[in-house]
Amino acid sequence: MTTLDDIIGRSQHQSWFSRIRNLQVFWVLAAAILACLALTLLTDTFASERNLFNVARNFAFVAIIAIGMTAVIASGGIDLSVGSSVVLSAMVISVAMASGLPFWFSALLALGAVLLVGLLNGVLIAYAGMPAFVVTLGTLSATRSLAMVLSDNKMIWQFGPDHDILLWVGGGSTFGLPHPLYVLTMLTIVMSLAFKWTRWGQHLFAIGSNENAAVLTGIPVKRLKVSIYMFSAFTAGLAGILMAGWLGSVTTSLGQAMELTVIAAAVIGGANLAGGEGTALGAVVGALLIEVIRNSLILLGISTFWQGMFIGTFIIVAVAFDRFRNFRT
Amino acid sequence: MSRLVISGLSKNFGAIQALSDVSLSIEPGEVLGLMGDNGAGKSTLVKIIAGNFRPSAGEIRIDGKEVHFHKPIDAQREGIEMVYQDLALADNLSAASNVFLGREPMRSLGPLKYIDYKRMNTVSAELFKLLKSETRPRDQVRKMSGGQRQAVAIARTLLSEPKIVIMDEPTAAISVRQVAEVLDLIRRLRDRGISVILISHRMPDIFSVSDRIAVLRRGELVSRKAAANSSPEEVTGLITGAIDAA
Questions:
Q1: By CA distance, what is A218's nearest residue in B?
Q2: What distance in Å separates the CA atoms of residue B13 and residue B56, rounded to the nearest whole number?
């Protein structure tokens, strides 16, 4: 006979596979791997070292910001200003370096500038209680404008005495892997741990699933929200510095509409716009899938006009998948 | 000695008198049913006790000591825990995470600190066992029944060995079987010597667990008597004003 204690004691640990199977990341990764395999068979160029290097580098920029975006989305918010933070960061570092400042100092200035944008977002959203969508829409416009003012809307392609360092940081490679990929790997590991094992991470998800509960349990919700928007801006700033080094020149159109790709990557990777869900790895896999689609269309000779169609379909399929999954349980 | 003594408590919001001169006491291990119509001042009263509002006049004593609460955390420190009507649970987190939300135990690994999930799960499992609830610490709250959710919210209050647990409408909007579960949970709190203040509109629930019943009408305490000496008819009359006072 089973007693009540037995029932209580019986844990419902599912098998390893059935747990994995329920994760959106798993299916998105499967789709990405499948696409890679198909492309390897269909084209000679996909599996070439050169192409894989490019894919790895290109997706890293979006993936880095998508991790920051996942934090924001999981907390129940949205950050539309990341694309503009990218250009602000790139512009600050290039203007500073062009004026003769060393790389490290200029990088700190760039990150400081975008952290201020994040601070502004966070304060307006958390303390003034304004909707995140509207606040970040405002800073999206204002921040890009600031970058234009700063550069007088000119292209900057000479970065002073530390010119080569910047190009090495963003465009170089070590052991055959592009540097942005190292940054992304570090960030993914650190943030995966932070989401799961720190109070900051745990409380972030609590805010996203029930903000009222978070307030009632004494979590410093407002301060935490500010830190989340600052983190998101930080990832955008990091990507901005790396992109400046990769491109070797910075124009004010850098990062335009990038926020949409970043949000798409986060959502495909399992971040829930209703809040409370999302993983760092998911954001990376989502960004990878988008880049593989983009790359495959080019390699297969399909008009690039079709890119939006494929990415759009994936966003909707990913969300539909999530709906069905929750419907079943 | 009484666990909680409230004397001459009044609260006004501008010109609106929400509570006037309410005096009340609760013994250890006693369940006090608090009844009254909407706007009678029940929520205002418990929110003052839980530190959400400050009273305009009057005093609160816990175990004979006068207390002044500025924030809910002050009341928590004195052993007063509140289970909110909407339960204040984060649906996407596990039961254990909800029990410990905002009070997560940490472990250190050199300079790094990380959440001690193992401890959270063991302690929560013990609390659920204590409450004789089938709730499992690792389950997501989203997938739980109303009764299990109540168990999570109540387990949270037990974490700090409370003296008084206040429950605001714990049996609203849940199934009959779950109501029975929640009433059992209340009895278990009582058996541990915890005083419970239960706000409810449901007469049968109040009468099945309360030792005493207090009735508020338009901010005034109109009755405070043993449940055994009262009846649902009398309480209904007191709430509506058909009976002046008892």
A1: B102
A2: 9
Candidates B223, B202, B139, B208; CA nearest to A8 is B139
**Touching B: A residues 270-299, CB under 8 Å:** 275-277
Beta-carbon separation of A213 and B89 below 8 A: yes
Rounded mean pLDDT of chain A?
A: 84
pLDDT tens-place string over residues A165-222 = 888 878 777 887 888 889 999 999 999 999 988 989 999 999 998 888 888 777 889 9
Question: Rounded to whole angstroms, how far apart are CA atoms B3 and A306?
Answer: 72
Q: Please report the DSSP string for A48-113 in residue order.
A: SHHHHHHHHHHHHHHHHHHHHHHHHHHTT---TTHHHHHHHHHHHHHHHHHTT--HHHHHHHHHHH
Q: Report which of B82, B88, B44 is spatially closest to residue B197, judged by C-alpha positions.
A: B82
Confidence of residue A125 (pLDDT cuts 50, 70, 90): very high
Residues of B in contact with A203 (CB under 8 A): 101-102
- B161/A24: higher pLDDT: B161
Q: Domain limits of chain A?
A: 53-328
Amino acid identity, residue B170? P
Is CATH 1.10.8 the classification given to domain A53-328?
no
The tokens describing B128, both together, are 């659920």
Q: What are phi and psi of A279, to 5 degrees?
A: -135, 155
Find the length of chain A: 329
Q: How confident is the model at residue A326 (pLDDT cuts 50, 70, 90)?
A: low
Determine the CATH number of domain B4-94+163-240. 3.40.50.300
Q: What is the ipTM of this complex?
A: 0.75
Q: Which residues of A touch B113 (CB under 8 A)?
A: 198
For A65, what's the count of Cα atoms within 13 Å in the CB-facing half-sphere?
Answer: 35
Structure tokens at A236: 């955008």
3-state helix, strand, coil in chain A (%, to 5): 75, 0, 20
